[in-house]
Amino acid sequence: MGQVTAGTADLAALVEEVMQLRDLFQRRLLEDRRRQELYDRLCQELDFARSDLVGQFIAPLCRELLLVTDRVGTAGRAGADPAALLVSVLDEISEVLARRGIRPIASIGEEFDPSLHDAVERVPVDSDADQGRILHERRTGYLIDNRVLRPAQVVIGHRIPDDVRPGSA
């Protein structure tokens, strides 16, 4: 009879363990479903935000740029002076960008700032005042609000000490 009670106790322990595992499995399954629902909801919100972004920002910008292309097309058919047309188009595009908070980065004569400028060349200078200063701008950089949209590509001056200059001995 001792074996029957031991077998029953083992069976009861096994049944209890199976029930605990079943409960754990069901809780995990429910948790996974909640996570999936949250993920699906976040994806829907992201899609909505993207469409809102297009509607609020990209579409108006494109409409303004289309006005510029219309003017170029009309002026091209009318035989306008190409140089004057180019200046006019650049001015209008600059205005469109400025209305969107995009402005050029001041560079020439400024102290080199690696967060705003990308040094593409260093040239020797005679003056200590030109050491680390921007002497030439290869490509204009732009800020959107206060964030760098594109750094300016610049040429900076660097002073060579007199004792290192060629011909000084």
Your description of this structure?
A hairpin with a 2-residue loop joins strand 4 (142-144) and strand 5 (147-150). The protein has helices spanning 2-78, 82-99; strands spanning 102-104, 117-125, 134-139, 142-144, 147-150, 152-159. The chain is α+β, with helices and mostly antiparallel strands and 169 residues long. The protein has a 3-stranded antiparallel sheet. A 3-stranded mixed sheet has the order 2-6-3, with no helix packed on it. The chain folds into 2 domains: 1-100; 102-169, Head domain of nucleotide exchange factor GrpE (Nucleotide Exchange Factor Grpe, Chain A, domain 2), CATH 2.30.22.10. It comes from Micromonospora zhanjiangensis.
Cα Rg = 34 Å
Number of contiguous helices: 2
The average pLDDT is 86
Shape: elongated
According to DSSP, the number of beta strands is 6
Terminal Cα span: 111 Å
Name the beta content range: 15-25%
Instruction: Spell the H/E element sequence.
Output: HHEEEEEE
Strand line-up in the sheet with most strands? 1-4-5
Judged by helices, strands and strand pairing, the structural class is alpha+beta
The profile of the biggest β sheet is: 3 strands, antiparallel
The proportion of residues forming helix, as a percent range, comes to 55-70%
- Structural domain count: 2
| Uncertain spans | none
Keywords: Chaperone, Stress response
Pfam families: GrpE
InterPro entries: GrpE, GrpE_head
Organism: Micromonospora zhanjiangensis
Draw up the topology in text.
Blueprint: H1 2-78, H2 82-99, E1 102-104, E2 117-125, E3 134-139, E4 142-144, E5 147-150, E6 152-159
Parallel strand pairs: 2-6
Antiparallel strand pairs: 1-4, 3-6, 4-5
Helix pairs in contact: 1-2
